[in-house]
Amino acid sequence: MKMRVSAVQFELRDVEHFGAFEEQVKHYVRNASEYGSKFVLFPEFVTTPLLAIGDTTGRGRPVGELADYTEAYRTLFSGLAQEYGMYIVGGTHVTRAGDKLRNTAFLFAPDGRVFTQDKLHITPTEREEWNVSPGEGVSVFETEYGKIGLLTCYDIEFPEIVRIVRAQGADVVFCPSCTDDRHGFYRVRYCCHARAVENQIYIVTTGTVGSLRKVDFMRANYGQAAVISPNDIPFPPRGILCEGEINADMLVTADLDLSLLEDVRKAGSVTTWRDRRTDLYPDWA
Hints:
Helix 1 packs parallel to helix 2. The longest helix has 18 residues, at 182-199. Strand 9 (146-150), helix 4 and strand 10 (172-177) form a beta-alpha-beta unit. Helices cover 26% and strands 27% of the residues. The protein contains 6 helices and 15 strands. It has one domain (2-267): Carbon-nitrogen hydrolase (Nitrilase/N-carbamoyl-D-aminoacid amidohydrolase, 4-Layer Sandwich), CATH 3.60.110.10. Strands 1, 3, 4, 5, 6, 7 and 15 form a 7-stranded mixed β-sheet that branches. Strands 8-9-10-11-13-14 form a 6-stranded mixed β-sheet, covered by helices on one side.
């Protein structure tokens, strides 16, 4: 089975009203639809431009106020998923869980269903500056193309959680990200490659580009979308099916052949999933 995926290098820009953000999102979804994509991935903290609305301080409104846009965000992305008949990973959006803030990834299905996955590993900036709390569990999500995982940015730097997702049957992990400099970008990018090799899966990742001049901690972004495969003979030698131009406003598109994953797991040059030593270390399933 094959599935076509697109990943958006979403250019952050200050907006004065929700409608401006909405039009930008619609542009990318229409673009992905023109390429026949069945999945489209947006980056982490995709809704932070909304913090500039009505701000008079030049520093942005408190991040917790993003939760006030949750209904509008869900309506926008869910409507587009149904209109264009695709699965949309709407990046992440800050939500409330009781008195806690969460960094939540959303999966919008073409039949109207909506799934969520809270980020599990919280960076120091998220925790100390924005008071974001970690999620409490990990899930995989059934689609008509098989099972997928949603692991956000820092999550991909922890091999154990990706191993759990793979053990639950995910063949593709979508990794929305937001990094402000090259160090952060390459931490995430290199870990995406490592997880693809270790688990013999595809990783679809993207990050924010552009700048929010009115929102603290979002003034600089360094990002690039990529579709990453295991490093074995059926795939490109560098394990990259496609990648964008760094810091450009664009999207990338690639076809994922899921049958090739089973081929390399059974008879690849290396069989890293089959050869894990569960007699020496736990099987995180």
